[in-house]
Write a structure and sequence with these properties.
mainly alpha
């Protein structure tokens, strides 16, 4: 009797238990999926926080690099200024030494003149 139409089986306790188990399993899968979404969202937020921190560190590094470059330029300018100051001091000392030589020469000349003036007149 293979061609006989099949009658729907009546809902018995076994079928109800099966449906209840299927609903429980579906609810469990739904909870697992929700937990997985929450974990994924937390992971995404953590990654975004890390990305932002990396960006802040990159900006801080760039700021430090720029400050270092500014400090290097300032140090180089200070070094040139110190060299110029040393040169100016050396030039001033040289001029002072030359003036001292002139003064000493003038003193010798004045002593010679005084000595000549003191000669006994006869």
């Amino acid at each position: 009797m293979p061609n006989q139409p099949t009658q729907p089986e009546p809902d018995g306790p076994a079928k109800q238990d099966s449906r209840e188990r299927a609903r429980d399993e579906a609810e469990q899968f739904r909870r697992l999926a929700e937990e997985a979404r929450e974990v994924r969202d937390q992971h995404r937020e953590s990654l975004e926080i890390l990305r932002q921190e990396r960006e802040r560190l990159r900006e801080a590094g760039e700021t430090a690099r720029a400050a270092g470059e500014d400090a290097r330029v300032a140090a180089e300018a200070a070094r040139h200024a110190a060299i110029d100051a040393v040169k100016a001091t050396a030039e001033a000392l040289q001029a002072t030494l030359e003036q001292m030589h002139v003064v000493e020469e003038m003193r010798r000349t004045l002593r010679d003149i005084r000595d000549v003036s003191k000669l006994p007149s006869n």
